Amino acid sequence: MIDIRDESSRDWQAVFRVISLAFGQSAEAELVERLRAAGDSVISLVAEDDEEVVAHVLLSKMDAPFPALALAPVSVIPARQRSGIGTALIQSAIERARSEGWSAVFVLGDPNYYKRFGFERPAAAGFTSPYAGPHFMMLRLSLSLTVTTGELKHAPAFAAVD
C-alpha cells in the first residue's frame, strides 16, 4: 500500500536516487538539494511502498504578485511509473497548497498531463517568466484570485538547471 507523507531529512538520499532514476540524470535531484539548502522548498512529499521511497514531488517558493508555488520536479521510479503514484502525489501536494492558503501553482510540463489537475495554459499566458510558452501553466487555488498579469520568478536554484 502506498503511503504519502512529508519528506524528512532521513529521506534525502532515497529522494536523490528516485529523482535521478526517474529523469535518467542527476540535474533535477541536484535542483531539489539546492532548493532545500536555500530554504525555498515549501511542500515536499514522498510516496512509500513497503517502507521504500518510490516517488517524490516538490513545490517551491516563487516571487509572484500573489502567494504562488512552482511544481517541480515530480519523480516516480521507472518501475512504478504509470501506476497512479505520480497523480496521487500531485493531488496531495495541490491539496496541501490549497489548505495552506497559497493562491496558485505554476508548472512547466505536458499540458495533456497537467490539465487533469486543473492547470491551464491561458491562465499563465499573461505572466512574464523565463519559462513562459506553450508548456507553462497555472492552477488557481483561490477563487478570489483576480490578478492575470505580472512578473514571475522561480527560486534562484532553477537558473542552474541545464
TrEMBL record:
Q: Does the keyword Acyltransferase apply?
A: yes
Protein's name in the database: GNAT family N-acetyltransferase
Q: Which Pfam families match?
A: Acetyltransf_9
EC number of the protein: 2.3.-.-
User: Kind of enzyme, top EC level?
Assistant: transferase
**GO molecular-function terms, A-Z:** acyltransferase activity
Q: Which lineage?
A: Bacteria, Pseudomonadati, Acidobacteriota, Terriglobia, Terriglobales
InterPro entries membership: Acyl_CoA_acyltransferase, GNAT_dom
Protein source organism: Acidicapsa dinghuensis
Residue limits of the N-acetyltransferase domain? 2-146
Is GTP-binding among this UniProt entry's keywords? no
Q: Which domain of life is it from?
A: Bacteria
